[in-house]
Amino acid sequence: MTAARWGRSEQADWQHWKEPRLTTAPLAKIRREQLPPGEVLCQYCTAKCCKYFALPIDTPESLKDWEFVRWYLLHEGATVFKEDDQWYLLVHATCKHLQPDNRCGIYETRPPICREYSTDNCEYDDDWLYEQYLETAEQVWEYSEAILSSARGPTMRSPRPALLPVI
Questions:
Q1: Could you tell me the sign of the dihedral formed by the alpha carbons of 57, 58, 60, 65, in that order?
Q2: Which residue among 30, 32, 44, 155 has the highest number of C-beta atoms inside a 10 angstrom radius?
Q3: The dihedral sign for the CA sequence 58, 86, 121, 75
Q4: How far apart are CA 75 and CA 116, in angstroms?
Q5: Residue bearing the bigger pLDDT, 162 or 52
């Protein structure tokens, strides 16, 4: 988040907030619309944006593509999700500079991606919902089998039962 995106009072409050405080935990979580004037949302957050990163991936379309997705999820801390018709590889990994009080340990020299980040559309709210969210290789297998059933060959699903006779 850049100071240029904030008003003067928010910038001054952010500068004050990053100074050492007596407490080592964020303030109790409030709703976004309850943010007091002059305060910064980050003061109330658990630093979700510093505990993962997501990279766009090509839309899986073939069995080979889905096998790559399955391979991703064989690695600890990886999930895959789809949002607004775009697939992402999400890696759950905490930034090594995140401090115990959820503040940045390299705030003055943080990378541009961190400087440009804004709380306007951040994950502070807990009401995010994805079109698809896959956490395990088994889920990928089942999902890809369902959408590519004819391409995969033998299925792990039970055969479709015969229809009941109409009497």
A1: negative
A2: 44
A3: negative
A4: 30
A5: 52
